[in-house]
Predict the structure.
Amino acid sequence: MRRIETAILISGRGSNMAALIEAARAPDYPARIRVVIADRTDAGGLALADAAGVETLTIAPKAVGGRPGFEAALDAALTARAVELICLAGFMRILSADFVGRWRALNIHPSLLPAYKGLNTHARALADGAREHGATVHWVAPELDSGEIVAQARVPVLPGDDPERLAQRVLEAEHALYPAALRAACRRLA
Ligand code: GRF
């Protein structure tokens, strides 16, 4: 079986990244996590990736002249490692249309897209009285939180939920969703 060489981009704690790394340990998993790249040195996920034996790299946009420098450095790092697919996992930076046109990328977003694009999705769902919420894995397109949907996980909104409790329930669903969606996406690339 050919494994798709995959990079994970993170900005924070990296719990979805950890779920992907764990899934990719299975011998029949169709992706190999080649490298984890963060845009900040204090991203908690870096230590987790390191402990799991995955190469890590930090590219701080400020250190390389902002977005153009960041994307050039990212391009070089991905090309040098023969990466074929990128997974954005809590990566808090908007990539240019040029970059998105050059690389295949997946993203995980904490809502049932197309509902609640952008930030604070859990609070907004609760404020609307939504009875169902969830998460979406989609192909990255130039417009934020759009792009073809690969898979979704539905999570009920329960009485007494606050944004934190709802976020926790959605996050648990994300940890099963993203590995399954990456598996499905790889089928298309193999
Ligand atoms: C997740 O809720 C994901 O949907 C969103 O950012 C959060 C990242 O969490 N894009 P983690 O860093 O994977 O723990």
